[in-house]
Each structure stands twice: as C-alpha cells, then as structure tokens.
C-alpha cells in the first residue's frame, strides 16, 4: 500500500457511502490497530510476502474482536518452481 492508494480508497469509500471502514498504512507484522477492535480482517495476496507469517497471524488474532472474522486469499507453493518459471515475469505479474 502507498499513501496514494489509501487516499483513493478513502475517496471511493466516501463516494459510495461506506462509513464503517478504516484504511491505515502499516506493516502486516505490526498492525497500527488497538487490541480487539477489528470486526473483519481481509487479506488478499499479502501474507505470502511476509517472512514472519506466525507474527502476521498473531497480529490478526490480537486485533480481531471475539467472534470476528478473517478472510484470506493467497498463493501457496506446493512444489519448487523450476528456474525457467522463476525467470518468467509473465507468470508472477499476470
């Protein structure tokens, strides 16, 4: 996320009347959110980027309210990539 992306997100949320969302810039391993304050956590293709995955899950647990929900969409590698695949930019950039 960048400050520009956050600005655009806030603008779109206001435009569409979503006043129950909050956008913050921070690190996934150290969320800038108080304990037990999040009703929902949505993570889309982010956790795979962190080398400290257990810390990510600990943070989600810390900030999530009791009975809250987590939605995770991510990529998982089930076998080693070939060198050819690693070098093929189209495979990881779409």
Automatic annotation (TrEMBL):
Domain Methyltransferase: 1-92
InterPro entries referenced in this protein's UniProt entry, alphabetically: Arsenite_MeTrfase-like (IPR026669), Methyltranfer_dom (IPR025714), SAM-dependent_MTases_sf (IPR029063)
Enzyme class: transferase
EC number of this enzyme: 2.1.1.137
Assigned keywords, A-Z: Methyltransferase, S-adenosyl-L-methionine, Transferase
GO terms under biological process: methylation
Protein name according to UniProt: Arsenite methyltransferase
